[in-house]
Amino acid sequence: MPPRKTSRRTTRPPKVALLVETSNAYARELLLGVKEYIRVHGPWNVHLSEHSRGDRPPSWLIDWDGDGVIARVENKQIARALEALRVPVVDFSSHRYLAGAPVVTTDNAAIARLAFDHFIERGFQHFAYCGVDRFAWSVARGGHFDELVRRAGLICEHYADPAGFGPDSDAETDAIAQWLRGLPAPVAVFACYDARGQQLLDACQRAGLAVPDQIAVLGVDNDSLLCELSPPPLSSVMLDTRRTGWEAADLLSRLMQGQRTKAEVHRIPPLGVFTRQSTDIHAVEDPKIARVLQIIREQACAGLTVPELLRKCPMSRRVLEQRMKEVLGRAPHEEIVRVQIRRVQDLLRTTELSLEEIAERSGFRNAQYLSVVFKREVGQPPSEFRLSGRTLPQNGGRTLPHHPRR
């Protein structure tokens, strides 16, 4: 086989093809990472056409005369077409259909570790994984998650894709609902990505299972559109996707300049967990305390007080405070305030509502009192948080990974 050609040494910008779909948030973030690299180190002459995941090679690729390709190589046909070009290729796919190309992808072991730690910190003892068997990265995530659960002396249930169901079909959602009904509660379910997580939440509704009280669901990708549209909003592992795109572009640039590199896998660790309502719970076996926590979650922002809580869940205040502190390490009033502050953070981050309107929607009697409590709990006034917290809420919006970001 003749050697792959490298970029012609001229002053013209290199011609680079991007075979990456634009139909999902993950792929778009990859492309944004590539774009940011080009903005700093370019220019490149980029060819990006309509392309769906798993498509056959586009017709223009046959006689394309370029210098390099960044692609998600999701089938053998694409791999053969890229091999025939004899140009450097960097692959985003964990399938590794193109054996001679380096791969830049997510670190599935680190993603599974974040998910497991996120659930363990919330007291869960029952675990499950809902993946998509046709995706190699999904199988890898499930395997790493299962290993962590088993190391802790626990059991992880796995959803098995039934034959004959189309992806994301109603029939498959019904099958997932049936599977969820057979899991012990409360159970922490790790979804391979946000689309699967959204389907899980739909299945929970069909099965009559309360989220997060009976089923806590965590996705991957932090696709804000999917996560915020889900009922309730979906917690998700945040990937460092733009860095993945940047690293792929940097690697391709070096290859096009004639530098030699091994066809190895470069794994990019995730950033953390963005916590939303679907996992915002501490798993408890005590049904009375579980009911207390459900009422607090549902009614704290309507101005719920501890006396009202006791009327809804009859027991002595001393017993309630003792049980809550044993389970959560917080008193009932502290938990009410925590839920209110989380709501304030969400509204500050995602809306332009005035502080008076936010106070009304989060259960505080006025904006001044809200400001005092917010600064005490968060460490900065709401105005500063609104400026700095547009992307990630402080103190509880994310769970950082245990490894430092490179």
TrEMBL record:
Keywords of the record: DNA-binding, Transcription, Transcription regulation
Positions of region (Disordered): 384-406
Keyword DNA-binding: yes
Pfam family, one: Peripla_BP_3
HTH araC/xylS-type domain residues: 290-388
A GO MF label: transcription cis-regulatory region binding
Presence of keyword Transcription regulation: yes
Superkingdom of origin: Bacteria
SUPFAM superfamilies, per database record: Homeodomain-like, Periplasmic binding protein-like I
Classification via SMART domains: HTH_ARAC
Protein name: Transcriptional regulator, AraC family
Species of origin: Chthoniobacter flavus Ellin428
